[in-house]
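Hi all, posting the design record for the shared folder.

TITLE: backbone redesign
STEP: 1 of 1
STRUCTURE INPUT:
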């Protein structure tokens, strides 16, 4: 094992939430008069905190999203999570291998703390993460693609950035990890490798991560 800490992104890496969340976001923006397809949402917002949605819409249209946008988006997303959310296949095997071999891990997500916890409970993986292993863009000034969130997670876990590896599935997240001076393995479950430039390595099946991390099986 060449790393002291594995930092997981959450949406699309631990829980299979990206199809649900991006479909809901695209539909809601379209309702509000900002036509957005599912692919548009993946391209522009996947891996980002919700403030990026406000920024991009304003830059493109000059219009502000309504004051209740965040609350409505979260309510719709959480309801879908409760009905349908599942863990990414194979992720519990990865977490089990890390735990068995005493390798530290945590998560650093663009989502809010509430979103992370709702998703973990719905997907049944809440038992894998202690409270102090969960970091959100809410905890820092800038979300991904800025490196702040990953640097914050490493600092809180007491590990130097060079000794960390990040597991990501979005272009913004890969960019953030690289900017933080960390290696990053990109999961291609949602996006092809060519859309995730700059990663240290790529994998399409979560169980492959066990080998990439050098964990014994």
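Okay, here is what came back for every position:
SEQUENCE:
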């Amino acid at each position: 094992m060449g790393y002291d800490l594995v930092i997981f992104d959450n949406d699309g890496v631990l829980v299979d939430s990206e199809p649900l969340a991006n479909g809901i976001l695209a539909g809601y923006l379209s309702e509000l008069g900002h036509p957005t397809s599912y692919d548009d949402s993946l391209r522009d917002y996947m891996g980002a905190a919700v403030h990026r949605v406000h920024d991009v819409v304003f830059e493109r249209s000059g219009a502000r999203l309504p004051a209740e946008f965040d609350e409505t988006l979260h309510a719709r997303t959480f309801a879908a999570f409760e009905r349908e959310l599942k863990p990414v296949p194979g992720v519990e095997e990865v977490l089990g291998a890390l735990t068995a071999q005493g390798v530290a891990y945590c998560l650093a997500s663009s989502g809010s703390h509430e979103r992370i916890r709702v998703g973990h409970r719905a997907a049944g993986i809440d038992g894998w993460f202690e409270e102090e292993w969960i970091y959100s863009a809410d905890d820092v000034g800038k979300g991904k693609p800025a490196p702040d969130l990953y640097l914050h997670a490493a600092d809180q876990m007491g590990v130097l950035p060079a000794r960390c590896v990040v597991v990501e599935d979005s272009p913004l997240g890969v960019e953030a990890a690289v900017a933080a001076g960390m290696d990053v393995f990109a999961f291609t479950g949602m996006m092809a490798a060519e859309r995730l430039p700059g990663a240290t390595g790529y994998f399409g099946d979560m169980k492959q991560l066990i080998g990439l991390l050098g964990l014994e099986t």
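COMMENT: The chain has a mean pLDDT of 95.
Let me know if anyone wants the other runs.
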